[in-house]
Specification:
This protein is an alpha/beta fold. It has a nine-stranded parallel β-sheet with strand order 7-6-5-4-3-2-1-9-8, covered by helices on one side. It binds flavin-adenine dinucleotide. Flavin-adenine dinucleotide binds next to strand 3, strand 4, helix 6 and helix 7.
């Protein structure tokens, strides 16, 4: 089922992101974890694409398995920055043949290697991939990424949002945000997008921080502002894994409730392949989700 169709429902829903294994040896354990998450019946599940395209086969294998064994619609991520056009066309064909209806069209990160040498790479921006997906003739529902605290390479909101508008005009039907820890940043961003004429659904992406060591990496990757309340919680509980997990889930629960209370109908959770975290969140929200 297409995500744009799912989003038309009035029900409050939650969707989950998982990532594929990097090697054959971890395939079974990742498959098991993603099945456990799928059995919780999220609205849909997204499966990431490894940086540099290293896990392209596993992305499809995991997405197909979730769909077939658990009946949960999937969203396959695809990045283009390190690929030539023939490879991307082949990937698009494989996604179509796997029966996957939803694709998150991404550029991928500019790694130090790619900054030094981009020979053999035909793409600069995600909008080009969106156009290729549209022109493939497959009836995909295409999504894209967006950044409430602007993309790390962007100078300001004006430029970042202008480029986002180009991506949407190219055919993106919904957007999923980078993680953020302060909902007000998201609400302000939504206003800016609507003011710029971007009217597609914006799905907030929320990362439960349940481990003190996750913080610095998450903040560095996402460029996210860390509210003082959250920093205090990490300072207090960061060295106590059980307490940090409980506090992190409580913080995410509150963030999600705030989003639902302010009219957001679907929230996407970066589960990091952890069924226990997905389960705890769903339990905390059971009456709200109904
Ligand atoms: P783009 O939309 O191309 O934007 C990248 C930068 O270029 C922005 O600064 C933008 O403003 C600028 N730009 C765009 N068009 C132009 C133009 N015409 N001229 C000048 N500048 C322009 N990475 C993975 O490797 N695998 C994943 O599975 C994955 N999943 C993700 C899921 C979500 C929800 C998010 C938010 C990110 C994900 N990423 C993933 C990370 C993503 O690949 C990086 O953030 C990447 O650096 C940017 O990708 P993009 O698709 O947003 O790029």
């Amino acid at each position: 089922m297409k995500i744009t169709e799912l989003l038309k429902s009035d029900k409050l829903t939650m969707s989950f992101e998982v990532f594929p294994p990097k090697t054959d040896t971890s395939f079974e354990s990742v498959k098991k974890a993603t099945e456990e998450i799928a059995q919780m019946r999220p609205a849909y599940m997204s499966v990431t694409y490894g940086a540099g395209g290293g896990t392209s086969k596993y992305t499809l294998d995991i997405a197909q398995n979730i769909m077939k064994t658990c009946g949960v619609p999937t969203l396959a991520h695809l990045t283009c920055i390190s690929s030539d056009r023939d490879t991307i066309h082949q990937r698009i064909k494989e996604i179509k043949e796997a029966g996957i209806k939803n694709v998150l069209a991404l550029r991928g990160d500019l790694t130090p290697e790619l900054m030094l040498d981009r020979s053999g790479c035909d793409y600069q921006y995600a909008a080009e991939l969106v156009r290729d997906l549209k022109e493939s003739g497959a009836d995909f529902c295409i999504g894209g990424a967006c950044y409430p605290e602007i993309h790390i390479e962007s100078k300001n909101y004006r430029e970042d949002i202008a480029h986002l508008k180009e991506k949407v005009d190219a055919g993106c039907e919904f957007l999923t945000t980078q993680m953020f820890f302060d909902n007000n940043i998201f609400y302000n961003y939504m206003w800016k997008l609507r003011e710029a004429g971007i009217n597609v659904p914006i799905i907030p992406g929320i990362m439960p921080i349940t481990n003190g060591n996750q913080i610095d990496r998450a903040i560095k990757l996402s460029n996210s502002f860390m509210p003082r309340r959250f920093r205090m919680l990490v300072d207090k509980f960061g060295d106590n894994p059980d307490a940090m997990k409980q506090a992190g889930i409580a913080y995410t629960t509150e963030q999600v409730i705030g989003l639902y209370a302010n009219g957001i109908k679907n929230v996407h959770i970066y589960t990091m392949n952890k069924p226990d975290i997905a389960k705890a969140l769903l339990e905390n929200l059971s009456d709200i989700l109904g």
